[in-house]
Every structure is written in C-alpha cells, then in structure tokens.
Amino acid sequence: MELTQEEKNTIVEEVSNILESYNQDRENLVPILQNVQEKVGFIAGVAMEKIAEHLDIPAVDVYGLATFYNQFRLNPPGENEIKVCMGTACYMVGGEVTMESFERRLDINEGETTSDRKFSLDRVACVGCCTMAPVIVRNDEVEGYVTPTRVDGILNELSPGSGDNNYENSGESQVEQEKEGAQKNE
Amino acid sequence: MRTREKARLNRKRKVPKKMSNVSTTEKYSHLQKEATEKISELENKTVIQVGAATCGIAAGAFDVKQSFEDKIKEKDIDATIMEVGCMGHCYAEPLAIIYKPGYAPFGYGNLDKDLVERLVEDFLVNDDPCYEYMMVALEPNDVFPTFEDFPRGVYEQKIILEQCGFIDPTSIEQYIARGGYSALATALEQNPENILETIKEANLRGRGGAGFPAGIKWESTQKAQSEEKYVICNGDEGDPGAFMDRGLLESNPHLVIEGMAIAAYTTGANKGYFYIRAEYPHAVKQVNEALRQAREKGLLGESILDSSFSLEIEIFQGSGAFVCGESSALVQSMEGETGMPQSRPPRLATSGFRGKPTLLNNVKTFAFVPHIINRGIEWFLETGNQDSPGTAVFSLVGKINNTGLVEVPMGTTLRELIFDVGEGIPLEKEFKAAQIGGPSGGCLPESALDIPIDFDSLTEAGAIMGSGGLVVLNEDDCMVSVARYFLEFTQQESCGKCTFCRLGTKHMLDILTRITKGEGKEEDLQTLKELGEDVKAGSLCNLGGTAPNPVLTTLKYFWDEYEAHIKEKRCPSLMCKDLIAFYIEPSKCSKLCNVCVGTCPTEAVYTREDGLKAIDQDKCVKCDNCRKTCPPDYDAVVKLSPVELLTEKEG
Questions:
Q1: Which residues neighbour B68 within 8 Å (Cβ) at sequence distance 6 or greater?
Q2: What pLDDT sits at residue B122?
Q3: Across the interface, which of B398, B403, B621 has its CB nearest the CB of A100?
Q4: Contact (CB<8Å) A126/B336
C-alpha cells in the first residue's frame, strides 16, 4: 500500500510535533514509537527516518525495534480495526476459525488492511478476557463469544453492507442473492 | 507522659510547617482518620458497586452502570454508583453488589438492562431483594449463602485478592480506610535490615513463575553500593491465558504501590517503575490514577509520610514481547533496545536498569509484602506448605464451569482446584488435561492431578508454576494441536539470540505442523524428544529453557494421540482440520430445516434432490457453523476422522 506524498508530509509533520517533547535519550525510543502509533496509527518508513534523525541513531535501529515488538504496525490501520485474540483459551474454543471467517469475509490476511482501508485485521496474543473466549477487539471494544456466525453481524454493524457477502462482492444487491437462494431451494 | 506527648503532637499537627516532628505512624493515623471520615459519608446510604475491570467491561459493565443510573434517576432514589474491580467470579459478569441500609450486601450476576430495572424497582424502591436473581450475600445471614458457603469458598483463602472487587480502585481513601499503607508507615519506622529479615524469614518466593526467593534479591540489591537504585514491578503478563496481574493492577493498584514502596525503602531505591503491557490500557489508567493520588497524599514523592525517604514511581508501557518478562530483556526494552536477554552475572541486583542496582519483582510478589509486614512472619508461614508459603493466584479458564480468578493456599491439589473450586467440566464432557504455566508450562493428565500446587512439585511433573495461568482442556481438545499452538507462540516470540531456541523451535514446529496435517513420520516423535532436550539445554534464558515443555509433556502423557495422527491419520479429538471431514447424517437430517444451508459461509452445504442436506467437501472450510447451528433435536452434522470414513459413509 503506497502512501501519497501528501500523506507522507502529514506524517512527518505529526512526528516532528511529537518529537518536540522528547530529548535525544535512546530510552525515549519505545515511548516515542508508542506515541507515534497512537497519533498516526502506524509507524511509516518516513516516521522511522525522522525518529532516527532526532535520536541520532541509525534508522535500522528504529526499524529493528518497530519490528521486534508486537505492538507496532507498519501499515496504515483500517477505519475499523479488528483484532482477533489468539490466546490459549480463545484458540481452544475456535479463535482460529473466527480469524479465518474474518479473513474470508474481508478477503485479506491477518496483518493486512482492505484496499478501501475500511477494515484492518490483526491477531493479538491475549487481551486477558479469557473467560469470554473466543474474544475479538473491535475498535478498542472487547467482544466475547464471537463465533463465525457473529462475524457477518459485526462487519455489518461497523460498516453496513460489508457482512452480507464476500467483501469484494459487497456491491451485489441483497435482492439478487435472495433470488439466487430461492432458485437453489426450488 | 505519653498522653502529654501525644497531646503536644496533636497540637503540632494543626501547624503544617512543623509536621516533620510527627512520627510516620502518627502522620499515617491522621491520614487514615481523614479517609475514614470521607468513607463514612457513604454509610447508611445505598451504594451500588459495578464490577468494571477489563473482563467486566467486556461483558457489558458500562451498559449495566448506565441502566442503574437511568433507573435511579427515574425513580429519584438517593444512591451512589461506584465502579469497582474484579472479584474473580468472571463466569457471572457483569455483576454488581448492592448495599442497602438494613440489608446484608447482596451480589447479583449476569446482569442486563431488564434485570437492573427490576432490581431498582423491587429492591431499592420496594424492599424485595429478589432472591431468585441473587448470586451471593457478602455477610453471613439467615437467608442467603455467602462466598464462604460456595464450594470454592472452602478452599479459597484470599490474601492479595481480598479487597479486589470490593473497593473502588480509583479512591485511595477506600484503601487507606481499610488499613492500606499502614505497612508502609510501620516499615518507615524500622531499619531496612529488619524488613529484609522479615521478608527472608517469611520465605516469600517470587510469584512471577520461577519462585526465586524474594529475600535474596532484596538482600543483594540492598548490599549493592550505589547512589542510584531502581525498583521495577514486572507487570508484563505475556502468557496467553493469564490475567492475574491485570486483575490485581486494575482492582487494587494501591496494594502493589505500597509493596513497591516498602521494597524501595528496604533496598535503598528512590525511583520505581511499573512495567505494564500496553495491551492493558485499563490497568495503565488505574495505576496512573493511583500513583497520582498517592503523590497527593504524600505517600509517594519527597519525604514520604514526613520521613527522610523519597520515592517516585512511573509507568513504562511494554510493547508486547513475551521475552520481556525475562528480567534482563525487560531492562533492555526500557533502555530503548530490542528485548534480548543478557547473560548473567552480573545480575540485575548489581547492574540492572541504566547499569544501576535494580530490584525486579512480579506484581503479586509486591502485593504480598504489605500483608507480611502487617500480619507477621508466623501468619504467612502458616499458609501454604513448608517450602512454598502463602497462596497462589490462578486464572481458571478453558473448559471449566467457574472461570475466573481464584486464590488458594499453596499445596492445594490440581484436582481440588479444578473439580471443587472450578466445579468441574461443563456439558458433562470428559476432563483431558490441565495446561498450567502457559507456553513455558506443561499439560498434565488426570493421573497427575493429585500433585500439590507449589513451585517444586510442578517442576518435577514437567510443568511449571508459571505466573498462574491454568487452562482446562477436555475431550474435544487435541493435544498435538495444543502443543503446536504453544510452540508456534514461543517460536514467534523467540528473540533470536540463541541458535537452539531460534532454529530448534522452528524445526520442532515444522514437525508438529506436519503431524497435524497427517503427514507425520514415525521417527518424528523421537526427533521431537531429542530436539526438545537440546533446545532446553542450549538456550540462555527461560523462554528457550522451557519452550519445549508443552511438547515434552504431551509426548510423555499423550503418546497415543501422536501415534493416532501419524499411523492412522486420525485426530482422536476431531480438532485437526486436515484430518476431519464434516458430514450430515441423512437418517437424522430434517428436510424441513434450512439452518445449515443459511449459515454456511462458502455455500458448501446444499439441498439434495430428495430434500436432505449434504456438504460439498471441496467447498467446505470446516468452520463448524453447520454443526453448531443444527438444532439439537436433529443433531445431524458430525465430524469424521480419519477422512476416509467419509467414503465409507457415502458409499
């Protein structure tokens, strides 16, 4: 996913603002990255270069950290962020099936964003709500007991129409589908 | 003489400038008096406490709180609504406790809007406590059981979780009014050496998993010569399936802060850090607020309680790397490096954060400290067993009836924990294994359930105590798949420093993946065993040193399951996708029902010419939707393994 020059400029500007409140100390690297991710949503290449320049360290060190820790994402998040918990308890009761259902519906793999940037899909190690497994986090809101049948509902609630069919075909009208279904039943 | 002295001090207390003459305990009792006064405002008033830790919020605590607020406003009732933490009964979330003058405090679980409205109307307005919806009474009474009367109440002994879920974590007064921070006040009047002796004699062992005696760590940090020293609280709870530290930090942060302050005083540190995972935003918020309040009350900052001791505590948010639970890796990550464990010595106690002596303990370890100071060594040694005194906190999850946080004395057996405290396995399924200690732990079968829970016994059985995650598995869980899951986790989280951990786990994972796909070879099992031993021996830190545990224990206890996968291409628990097929029994299927067709996400389920349903195996993604939605009256969808059974069935 390529960023436009305009997007890059905004990111650099935002990052520069953030950097103002930090001194050159290397200890600030993780907090800076966290702050950038919070404000910008992800750690873009241009952001890493800017941070490296500020801390006077090689850009590869920043890249190393951003890829070492699970918290940081390198591509823009979708308008709606969906995180599927893959903790032990969730895995045992079908977290993976839930993840697959999202992947199938959105037609992306985990860690990716849909081409219209409406949805992004990620896995998280554990959100600590194991008693409600399988759990997903939708836009910072935890939802428990998510079965594949609930997946369509969630997508529809977040963006009407998205859960009706495979994501790429979501333009197809509901009526047509029903017709098709009726024919099959006949 | 003494009374005169007190009177003199009392007079002085009114003049803030001269307060430095007042002893810390007196300064503290002043604080406590203030807090008690503030709390007493709530006496004889109706108070509703809504459990709002992360788990409660996820279950809908905020909606419940809103419903209470709306209804109370509508009925014009004078009541205070308060957010509290987690009391450990997660299976009943969202829950609330209602204190109404004239009644024992009553707890209600599984709340929703309708139930809330009914409670307000029937109980708060009309004096009917709705026994039919009641879950528990919090004080002994003639009409309703208390938590002590619950099956788990017999075993549970709450020390560090005692106040969790019953006090407002954002109100320092509630903590102080119940005696909070008194241990700090007592400690500040003693020699650091005395406190160290207390901790050593109480034999407090680190609750992070390894069980290293806290006293030894404290002693070496105390002895280390340096102007600057640090105390770090390890809240990087990276184990999937565990949430004890989160629960504690969200529900009673002041207890941990107090423990840290005592540790800092003992070891001579003036700066402390909470290392909390960024995935726990609610915990970060609660601790931040608690720190602010503690500063405001003079319990943190310069000259704490007017003593000569100063301490500042900050939060550092961990960015989510399992290996950062290891102490040297944790320090690395705080210094802005990738979290790679370092070889020891030097230990943290001599050269830790910024190269200075650093004391690092788990959240729960610190939480025990104030209790030990307050109640004494003898009291602590009476609980638990000889080599592991005190209690253990577990998060019970998985296929168990009573999910939640429990605190039991060390030495309780796993059987008691699962079948009595947790009340067994739901849906009359068969127990298969207890996964204890997360990715570093092991899977213990039925036959190993009678071992007592303590640091040493569990290690002997091949598992570890870990920080306390306990996942219960039943007959539907495939042990090969479980082992693969954990190895996949540790393989991804391996920092890459040691070859055996980096490549050995990868190779083991490849083998396990092959087995779950039905492509395993007979010699694989021997290779797995050997590799597992090598990875354990060839890794610097405990991530690699324990990563093969889930594989080795499942090999030891569930050998036959591995063989079934390899020799028969069969998954006995019908879990491994590549080894199962979904099939609709024509004899059970009803022509009148279309549920499975409707729920199939890939249109694999279709209606045959005779009206019965069938599955197109090429399209089927094995999502289990059709089997789950098939009405229990028919129960027509079955899983078959090995896949060859399908040809038999379909003829």
A1: B48, B50, B81, B96, B116, B120
A2: 95
A3: B621
A4: no
What's the full length of chain B, in residues? 651
Q: Give the mean pLDDT per block of 10 residues along chain B (651 residues).
A: 48 40 85 94 92 89 95 94 92 93 94 95 94 93 89 90 94 95 95 96 91 95 96 89 89 97 97 93 95 96 94 95 92 95 92 96 96 96 91 91 91 94 92 90 92 88 82 93 94 94 96 96 96 96 93 95 96 94 94 89 90 93 89 94 89 69
ipTM score of complex: 0.87
| DSSP type of residue B504 | I
Q: What's the Cα-to-Cα distance from B63 to each of B56, B88, B558, rounded to whole Å?
A: 11, 20, 45
Instruction: Say what the pLDDT of residue B440 is.
Output: 86
Taking the Cβ of residue B243 and every Cβ of chain A, the question of whether any pair is shorter than 8 Å is answered with yes
DSSP secondary structure letters along B348-398 = TTTS-GGGS-EEEEEHHHHHHHHHHHHH-HHHHHHSB-SSSBSEEEEEEEE
Angle (nearest 5°) at CA B404 between B400 and B405: 130
pLDDT at B282: 92
Contact B397 A89 (CB under 8 A): yes
* Inter-chain CB proximity A144 and B606 less than 8 Å: no
User: Which chain B residues are Cβ-neighbours of A147 within 8 angstroms?
Assistant: 625, 628
Task: Compare all CA atoms of chain A with the CA of B319 and give the residue at the minimum distance.
Answer: A71
Cβ <8 Å between A65 and B336: yes
Residue A56 CB: number of other CB atoms within 10 A? 8
Nearest CA in chain A to B335: A27
Contacts of A148 in chain B (CB under 8 A): 601, 623-625
**Among all residues of chain A, which has the CA nearest to that of B92?**
A131
Contact call for A127 and B279, based on CB within 8 A: yes
Residue A180 is predicted with a pLDDT of: 47
Question: What is the predicted pLDDT for the residue at A116?
Answer: 87
At the topology level, CATH places domain B391-474 in: Ubiquitin-like (UB roll) (3.10.20)
Q: Cβ(A36)–Cβ(A15) under 8 Å?
A: yes
Check whether domain B180-380 has CATH 2.40.10.340, yes or no: no
Instruction: Tell me the chain A residues in contact with residue B471 when contact means C-beta distances shorter than 8 Å.
Output: 88-89, 92, 130
Residues of chain A predicted below pLDDT 70: 1, 163-186
- Per the structure block, which two tokens stand in for A98? 């839930």
A149 and B628 within 8 Å at the Cβ level: the answer is yes
Interface touch B397/A149, C-beta < 8 Å = no
User: Domain spanning B46-150 has what CATH number?
Assistant: 3.40.30.10
Q: What is the pLDDT of residue B16?
A: 37
Using the Cβ of B335 and the Cβ atoms of chain A, whether some distance falls under 8 Å is answered with yes
Our CA-based measurement puts residue B61 at a distance from the nearest CA of chain A, in whole angstroms, of: 12
Contact A174, A125 (CB under 8 A): no
Residue B15's pLDDT is 37
**pTM given for the model:** 0.90
Which one is the CATH code of B580-650: 3.30.300.30, 3.40.50.2000, 3.30.70.20, 3.10.310.10?
A: 3.30.70.20
Multiple choice CATH, B494-567, 3.40.50.300, 1.20.1440.230, 1.10.8.60, 1.10.3720.10: 1.20.1440.230
